[in-house]
Specification:
The chain is of the alpha/beta class. It has a single domain, classed as Alpha-Beta Barrel (TIM Barrel), CATH 3.20.20.80. Helices cover about 40% and strands about 15% of the residues. The chain has an eight-stranded parallel β-barrel with strand order 1-2-3-4-5-6-8-9, surrounded by six helices. Strand 8, helix 11 and strand 9 form a beta-alpha-beta unit. Helix 11 packs parallel to helix 12. The longest helix is centred in the last third of the chain and has 20 residues. The protein binds (3S,4R)-3-hydroxy-2-oxopiperidin-4-yl beta-D-xylopyranoside. (3S,4R)-3-hydroxy-2-oxopiperidin-4-yl beta-D-xylopyranoside binds next to loops. The site of (3S,4R)-3-hydroxy-2-oxopiperidin-4-yl beta-D-xylopyranoside has 11 residues, from loops.
Amino acid sequence: PALKDVFKDRFLIGGAPNRNVVTGRDPNAAAIAEKHFNTITPENDLKWQLIHPRPGQYNWGPADSFVAFGEKNEMFLVGHTLVWHSQTPRWVFQDEAGDPLTRDALLARMKDHILSVVGRYKGRIRGWDVVNEALDGNGTLRDSPWLRIIGEGSEDKRYDFIEHAFRWAHEADPDAELYYNDYGLETSKAKCDGAVAIVKHLQSKGIRIDGVGIQLHGGLTYPSVEGLEYAITSLAATGVKVMITELDIRTQARGYRGADIGRVRRQSTDDSTALSTETQKKLADKYAEIFSVLLRHEKDITRVTFWGIYDRTSWIGGSPLLFDRDYQPKEAFFAVVKTA
Ligand code: XIL
């Protein structure tokens, strides 16, 4: 069965194609996306480093291919991401002499970037991860050049870079949904409370925010049902939509990195990742548990997106997705289908 049919009337279901998928170089992965997904997020190609590598120089080609692929298949397109501390070139935060940019200059750069990128895909990319991973594990704003340069000085400036990013994204495409996206919201209550605070802050200023993305990079033993439910219910209580935006479940020790199109690292040829029957079962059980929780809260969940398409090209390596290295559905796939 096709996942998008299985979860029809519950939530959108999607994946994160890399460049090869949307440009026809990985037709089998494209076939999985076309069959199973009604929404996609580009794994890397809309990130600052990839789309705006040098001052004034935009590299639109790969993102255009992403949009064309999604439109051809009538998918809900998600843009990822506009303001992030990672995969953002160093020059963004520096002047020509290499010194830190002034607050006003960085805001001007952020504005230009957001208006250009969101503007180009106006009416076509329908939702944006406007700000990504702005929180640290305690739920306070993470130390980053965005915060240091734009938020420095006074307490009431702390949220400024987030406010501005959302305002400019809205200006660039008034019909687009705007999201805050982060990881670990389902494992740290403090961090989840920090996300709730961001939502409430924007709402109190009358700034549009439509949803919060729980990335949900999980493992065989986490998140707990309770942690995931806490995140969904406390975020939904603010009135925004909740979505699972980068779902995968790590099956092996941290540190291993697999394929990496974003930094053009070579694809892993490590095949020693076949799962034991026991691990297959654990993976299937964890996926089934997560989907049971999501279905229990289906009125608050609008979308569930996997971070990748199939195991061979997953950013964390191992066997974290529903389709194996040969594009075949795994035990975990059938376990997920059964929850519906
Ligand atoms: C990852 C990609 O999957 C990799 O290819 C890239 O090298 C690094 O970024 N949180 C996010 C995603 O919001 O953008 C990250 O994607 C994974 C963690």
